[in-house]
Design a protein that fits this description.
Layout (H helix, E strand, L loop, with lengths): L1 E4 L5 E5 L1 H5 L5 E10 L5 E5 L11 E3 L1 E4 L6 H13 L8 E9 L4 E10 L13 E4 L1 H7 L7 H15 L4
């Protein structure tokens, strides 16, 4: 079950994943983590082909739903461990939250950033992942390589995301 929230993040009800992704536009919270290495490269995950949304595209390092009864911080820790096999030391920096809407769903996205120097071990939940240089990233934006959500979020927060990574 996912919490259904207002635009301030207050829980107003609950619904299943299917209800949230089935065109209902029920606003539900998600966490995103943009992971950089000390050189300023950004880590992206490759979405598996079995995913119901944006299969096969490159996406934010970590993205996942907040479960009913779970805080944003708890969801972030869980998703980072599940998807990348790492802990959150140092703690990530919360950057912003905003409403993302596609033809199928509406999400209240809580965006975080982490500069990390350890090894990343993507789980079987992903089709792998890798660090992209910023030049390489810019070269592929707009070419259907990345999820639209990642592209719009990266471009929206690029100056904040890039600060302190070079």
């Amino acid at each position: 079950m996912f919490p259904i929230v207002d635009e301030d993040g207050n829980i107003v009800s609950a619904a299943t994943r299917g209800e949230c992704h089935g065109g209902s536009k029920l606003l539900h919270p998600v966490v995103h983590l943009h992971l950089f290495n000390p050189a300023g490269d950004i880590y992206l995950q490759k979405r598996p082909m079995w995913k119901d949304i944006q299969p096969g595209k490159w996406d934010t390092a970590v993205g996942g739903h907040v479960d009913l009864g779970e805080s944003v911080a708890q969801a972030l820790v869980r998703e980072v461990r599940e998807e990348l096999g790492i802990g959150l030391e140092p703690p990530p920096t919360p950057l912003a939250h905003y409403v993302f809407e596609s033809e199928r769903e509406r999400e209240l996205v809580f965006v975080h950033k982490l500069v990390y120097s350890g090894d990343v071990c993507p789980s079987g939940e992903l089709d792998g992942g890798r660090f992209w240089s910023i030049d390489e990233l810019r070269e592929h934006i707009g070419k259907q390589v990345f999820t639209p959500n990642f592209e719009s979020e990266y471009l929206r927060f690029e100056s904040v995301l890039r600060g302190g990574t070079e």
